[in-house]
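Progress note, sequence design subtask.
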């Protein structure tokens, strides 16, 4: 049983070392891992109304990372699924506005018998 416990401890310590190494590096996998670890903070900044550029400046300044804007934007749209929800909200608001409008045109799908002959 001690052998199993020591293996678990060894695995946990290796995972922690890997996490630390990923947080320090700047490859694609590391950046995604880092952004995943702070995604709650990213959502908070989005809800507070910060632009993506401002968010990235805050993240880069506070962590001494150099994440590019396009990389950050791709992460936010893909992994936080904001693009679809924003688009859906815009479509719903557009549809509700158009429902309230009266364009002065009505169309009846059934023609009068007089019009047919």
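Output:
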């Amino acid at each position: 049983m001690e052998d199993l416990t020591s293996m678990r401890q060894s695995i946990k310590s290796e995972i922690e070392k890997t996490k630390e190494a990923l947080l320090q590096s700047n490859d694609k996998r590391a950046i995604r891992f880092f952004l995943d670890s702070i995604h709650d903070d990213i959502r908070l900044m989005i809800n507070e109304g910060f632009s993506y550029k401002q968010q990235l400046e805050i993240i880069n300044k506070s962590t001494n990372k150099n994440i590019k804007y396009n990389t950050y934007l791709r992460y936010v749209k893909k992994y936080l699924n904001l693009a679809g929800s924003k688009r859906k909200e815009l479509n719903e608001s557009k549809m509700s506005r158009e429902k309230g409008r009266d364009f002065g045109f009505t169309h009846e799908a059934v023609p009068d018998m007089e019009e047919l002959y």
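Helices lie at 2-24, 28-37, 39-48, 52-63, 69-79, 82-100, 113-116. Work on this subtask will continue into the next period as scheduled.
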